[in-house]
Specification:
It is a single chain. The chain has a 6-stranded antiparallel β-sheet with strand order 3-4-12-6-9-13. Strands 8-7-11 form a 3-stranded antiparallel β-sheet, with no helix packed on it. It is elongated and about 100 Å long. Helices cover 26% and strands 24% of the residues. The protein starts with 9 loop residues before the first strand and ends with a helix. It has 258 residues and is an alpha+beta fold. The longest helix has 17 residues. A hairpin with a 2-residue loop joins β3 and β4. α6 packs antiparallel against α7. The chain contains 7 helices and 13 strands.
Length: 258
C-alpha cells in the first residue's frame, strides 16, 4: 500500500528507524492550544505573532474594566426602627449591584443618607418590569450625597425603589483612594392621611409629632383651598442641615429606646 501523509499531523520519515514519525510543525501551529507566551489575547484567531501595542493595551483595559464591573448579586436589607401614628422609620442597606426592594409610593418619604462613598451613586428604578432591559435603561440618578436629607412626595401608588451602582467615571474609580461599598440610608414614611388628619392626639409620641411637623413644613403643596396639603409634584426636595440634625436626633433617641 502506498505511503501517504497521515491525517493526524504526522508524516513518515527516514533515518530514524522503521515506522518513526515526526510531528508536522505547520499542523501544530494551527492547533488552538498553540499559544505563545508573549501573546496578550486569549482568543485563537490572533496567531502566534505578538499583538500590536495599541491593540494589546486596548485588550488589557477591556479586561480591567470587565473585572471592575463583575459584582456579586446581593439583596438589600431593611430593618424597622419604629412605627407610630401612620409613620414608620426604616434602616436600609443598599449593596452595590443588589436587587431593588420594590415598594409602592402611597406614602411620602424622607430619606437620610447615613453613609455613601464617592465611588457609587444611587438610581431610582425605571418604568416597566423591574429587571427588564427597558426598566434598567430608564433608571435615573437621584443625586444623593453623603450626609444629605431629602423629601420625596408620594408618586401616587406607582412602584418605587433604588439601586446602588458604581459611577460611570472610570477615571475617578481608578483612584485607589475611592472606595466602593454599600449605601446606608434611613427612610421615614408617612401616609397622606396621617399628615392631614392629625387631630392632636395626646397619645401620639413626641417623635411622631415632631416628624409630622417637618413633613408638613417641607412637602411641596398646591394648598389653594387651605383644606389639605397635597404634593404638587414628585420632585425631590433637599432638606436643610438643621432639619436633618433634628431628624437624626429623634431617630437616635428612638433606636436607643427600642
Amino acid at each position: 500500500m502506498a505511503s501517504s501523509k497521515e491525517d493526524n499531523g504526522t508524516s513518515p520519515t527516514t533515518g530514524a528507524g522503521p515506522g518513526a514519525n515526526k510531528v508536522d510543525p505547520f499542523f501544530m501551529a494551527s492547533m488552538t492550544f498553540a499559544h505563545g507566551v508573549e501573546r496578550d489575547c486569549d482568543c485563537d484567531e490572533c496567531g502566534l505573532e505578538p499583538l500590536p501595542p495599541s491593540i494589546a493595551e486596548a485588550v488589557r483595559k477591556h479586561k480591567r474594566a470587565k473585572l471592575m464591573s463583575v459584582v456579586e448579586i446581593t439583596h438589600q436589607e431593611r430593618q424597622l426602627i419604629g412605627r407610630d401614628g401612620g409613620l414608620s422609620i426604616w434602616r436600609l442597606k443598599l449593596p452595590v449591584g443588589s436587587e431593588p426592594l420594590v415598594e409602592y409610593g402611597n406614602s411620602h418619604r424622607i430619606v437620610l443618607v447615613q453613609h455613601m462613598s464617592k465611588g457609587v451613586e444611587v438610581k431610582s428604578i425605571g418604568t416597566g418590569i423591574v429587571g427588564s432591559a427597558a426598566e434598567e435603561k430608564a433608571r435615573t440618578s437621584v443625586g444623593w450625597n453623603d450626609g444629605g436629607g431629602y423629601v420625596i412626595p408620594s408618586n401616587g401608588g406607582k412602584a418605587a425603589g433604588w439601586v446602588c451602582t458604581t459611577k460611570d467615571d472610570k477615571d475617578e474609580l481608578s483612584d485607589g483612594n475611592v472606595s466602593v461599598d454599600s449605601v446606608d440610608i434611613v427612610v421615614i414614611k408617612a401616609t397622606h392621611e396621617a399628615l392631614v388628619d392629625d387631630d392632636g392626639d395626646e397619645s401620639a409620641k413626641s417623635w411622631t409629632k415632631a416628624i409630622k411637623k417637618i413633613f408638613n413644613e417641607e412637602l411641596p403643596t398646591n394648598d389653594n383651598d387651605g383644606e389639605s396639603a397635597v404634593p404638587s409634584s414628585v420632585e425631590t426636595k433637599e432638606l436643610a442641615r438643621t432639619c436633618i440634625a433634628a431628624l437624626q436626633q429623634h431617630i437616635e433617641e428612638l433606636a436607643e429606646s427600642n
